[in-house]
Amino acid sequence: RLLSRSLHQQHPDEDEDGELAPDEVKADDGAQGVLLKWCREVTHDYEGVRIENFNGSFHDGLAMCALVHIALPEKTDEFDFQSLKKEEVGKNVSKAFEIAESKLNIPSALDPEDFVA
Length: 117
Prior knowledge:
By secondary structure, the chain is mostly helical. Helices cover 43% and strands 0% of the residues. Helix 3 (62-71) packs parallel to helix 4 (89-104). Mean pLDDT is 77; it is low at 1-14.
């Protein structure tokens, strides 16, 4: 929800949570729509990842891990996406944030606990 709010722009097709329906996102839908479309496109081959919005789609940490995994210049043994389990939310999010910071120099703006709560 925090990410959704930070990218939020008024749009007539938003649902009650302020999300755009997946089939209604177009390139001219502003920052949220463009980012959502990009996330969906680059993660479509990742098992267990289905990005429909910025709320529930990121809850289990797999979408975040997939995005970090895609960004890695070299796939490393320390980040085996296939070994992740949907029910290990805290571990998944922690892994995504840890790898993003250590390998991609992306500082964490959130805490893993924000996803588990």
